[in-house]
Amino acid sequence: MDIMHSVLVSYGFNKDSYTIERFGNGLINDTCLVKKEGEKYILQRINKAVFTNPFLIAENIEKIEAYLAETDSSYFFTTPCKTLGGDTIVCIEDHYYRMFPFVKDSHTVDVVQTPQQAFEAAAQFGQFTRVLSGMNIDTLNITLPAFHDLALRYNQFLEALEKGNPARITEVASLVKQLKKQVHIVEEYNNILDNSAFRLRVTHHDTKISNVLFDGASKGLCVIDLDTVMPGYFISDVGDMMRTYLCPVSEEEKDFSKIEIREEFYFAIVNGYKSFMEAELTDTEKQYFFYAGKFMIYMQALRFITDYINNDVYYGARYPGHNLVRATNQSILLQRLLEKEPVFSARQEIIQ
Ligand code: GN1
Ligand code: MG
User: Fold this and answer.
1) How far, in Å, CA of 272 to CA of 150, rounded?
2) Which ligand is closest in space to the CA of residue 27?
3) What is the position in ligand 1's atom list of the atom closest to the CA of 300?
4) What pLDDT score does 352 carry?
5) Atom of ligand 1 nearest to the CA of 240
6) Whose CA is nearest to atom 4 of ligand 1?
7) Which CATH code is given to the segment(s) 115-351?
8) pLDDT digits (tens, 9 = 90+) for 188-215
9) Which residue among 22, 23, 27, 236 is best mutated to probe the pocket of ligand 1, counting the most ligand atoms within 8 A of its Cβ?
10) Which atom of ligand 1 is nearest to the CA of 28?
11) Which residues, in sequence order, are CB contacts of 22 under 8 Å at separation 6+?
12) Any idea where the domains of the chain sit in the sequence?
């Protein structure tokens, strides 16, 4: 906490004038809630093994802020606090930190409980891309190269099977076999890359429900966690919502019998997203809502199993076998979603 104190001093905070506690459940950055004189702040240490150049993130946020100031100043955008020296990132002992004011009267949700929440969140992510649709995406930095490149993730999985921990490779053989059977999802992704009907837009790339702030009336206020905002395809944002909102339990759930797909949440995501993106999406893209779910769930299953085989170097593990549980969970979620394909295709015309 001494380091955290030094960080807070950069923002002009005095010792004993604040309290600090851990906050949230993100896997990558360390997040704290700071309270000072009735005000609240979110302080984060950026994971430098993942984000090797945190200034790229800060620059993207500044560019978006500047674009919005010129075009749509009514859009609610949370901007980072500035240090006494006017910086938005603090570097102390080779670690990087940044802080945001906690939006008053807002709250986050950990698990999506109602279709209305799914609709509101999807509308927020749709609106984010919509208000930035005139921005030149080439001006944005790529904070994580090839982040949602499914073909690359598949190759990393194959490479882990060659070079990873041999005992773990043997242990996961049946899951690996199941995942390899779904390689058609990668083939379809490669077709998308060749299809000019798919557009690159400003994409959030981490649309889990805890990255949406809600107001007291449970209406969406804004999106947060802009570390992975980069040019991308809509299947990334819609797909990660499917991955994290359709099921009543998260990727952490060990009781796999609880994994199921809640149909009405699917339509809430589609309709919420379209409420801002209908006119932006091409007709071809509109056919890919279901694919989006397959794409992101499959990618996450591959990322977790790859990390397990590679001794948990990326995600870490809070107990032995943690990433294997997560990978199995996501693989089962993918099965459950695939079973729903006929239902969702049959109702497709209702939502178009
Ligand atoms: C990571 O740290 P968090 O939870 O915001 C990961 C996402 C994964 C997610 C899985 C930069 O996000 O891509 O979907 O874990 N972010 C990065 O829980 O790798
Ligand atoms: Mg995140």
Assistant:
1) 25
2) 1
3) 14
4) 47
5) 14
6) 26
7) 3.90.1200.10
8) 999 999 999 999 999 999 999 999 999 9
9) 27
10) 2
11) 30, 31, 32, 33
12) 3-101, 115-351
Q: Alpha carbon 183 to chain centroid distance?
A: 23
Question: Which residues of the chain fall short of a pLDDT of 70?
Answer: 1, 348-352
Supply the pTM of this predicted model.
0.94
What tokens does 167 get? Answer: 């005992």
Pocket of ligand 1 (CB under 6 A): 26-28, 50, 206, 228, 251, 300
Residues near ion ligand 2 (Cβ under 5 Å): 206, 225
**Half-sphere exposure (Cβ direction) of 219: Cα atoms closer than 13 Å:** 2
CA of 206 to the centre of ligand 1 (A): 7
pLDDT at residue number 311? 98
Check if 3-101 and 115-351 are the same fold: no
CATH superfamily of 3-101: Phosphorylase Kinase; domain 1 (3.30.200.20)
pLDDT score at 27: 86
- Whose alpha carbon is nearest atom 9 of ligand 1? 27
Q: In angstroms, how far is CA 101 from the centroid of its own chain?
A: 21
pLDDT at 263: 96
Beta strands in 109-241 (DSSP E): 201-203, 212-214, 220-223, 230-232
The rounded Cα 9 to chain-centroid distance in angstroms is 31
